[in-house]
Amino acid sequence: MNGFRSSLVWLATAAAACAADPFAGVEPAVPETNAQAAAPGWKDNLLFRKELYLLWAVGADDFEKTDRLSSRLSAGFEVQKKFSTATKTVASVDYQGRLVYRDHALGTAADAMGMDAGRWTYETHNAYADFYNVLGEPGRFNLRAGRFYLPFGLNSQTDTHGTLLQLSNDRLFGADRDWQATAYGNATKRLDYLAGYVFGAGPDQKLDGQTGMAVGRLGLNGDYINERGLEAGVSGAYGERLDPHAGIDGPIRTWRLGADARKRLDSGIGPFTLTGEAAVGEDEDASVWSGLAQADWLHPGRRWGAAVQYVFFEREPTEVGRGPDVDERTSATLTRYFRNDVGNASLHWIALGLERQLRAPDGGADALAMVQYYRYW
Predict the structure, then answer these.
(1) H-type alpha helices, the chain
(2) Beta strands in 44-171 (DSSP E)
(3) Do the Cβ atoms of 153 and 258 come closer than 8 Å?
(4) For 78-109, what is each residue's pLDDT tens digit?
(5) Which of 59, 81, 86, 334 is deepest in the core (most CB within 10 A)?
């Protein structure tokens, strides 16, 4: 019996030795760590966009005299590049420009840069670099250098260069964008900040002895937008700037204080958004008041939109004897969207606009009708 058992053990051992190992030659997989991951190449995170903007407008009073349409036609582009390591984005650059043709420009707020522009002009919209998480914990301290929206009011987080309705900064400062060095990030768990130095170069982007301005905004952080649909903040500006439309030659001593709020209200027929901006200040010794109220509606399918707006601006007579500057108007738009991405990566629409000038800087008042075609892709 013992011999029989020994034979069985010997046979089993021999069979196991002869059997093929199904895992022979297979090396254990080693997970690739972040440190081993390849760094992004130059073409990664590189975006190129094109832009087409066509606007025709007619003023009721002007049409009776000249029988001419106003046109503003432009073609542009945007290049954006993000620089990243294997684990984080450290910087980005953005440039956006356009070639513009204007004929018989009218004083519409939809084209504030056309007030004294030539027939052909090249305009720089954005030209800046962002540096992320320069100091402190993530999100605390980021830097922006270049040309971008003034860090005052809602314009710094609202891209309005393609829309008929504009916010307050064009009237408050003579331009809504300026060359700047700005820090931004989280001030507290509930508040975000923007604070920096702007050149005060005005709509003509010139240096003429002005010291520039310190400008900043303190506002609710993104949690309020995501959870409550609410944005709100206070802003301030102090220093010197240029503005040929203010009737003052050379640098203008300027200060501004402002407050803003925007609230999204969801409904069964689509979201409504209510926007308000108010500001006070001085240019030299001339007092300044400004206000804006706007209501927007967007269809649930993002195919139709409508908006109404009221704006008010007044500056007292200046020291050089120029009379008061006033600008008061109401506007309404109806928009048919063909593309309307949530992230604004692709936009395509036709818009109709009406603008009623109640009081205008030149003392006149007109009613304007506008047709706009816009595409960004």
Answers:
(1) 2-18, 60-66, 169-173, 222-228
(2) 46-59, 70-84, 89-103, 120-135, 141-149
(3) yes
(4) 999 999 988 899 999 999 999 999 998 888 88
(5) 59
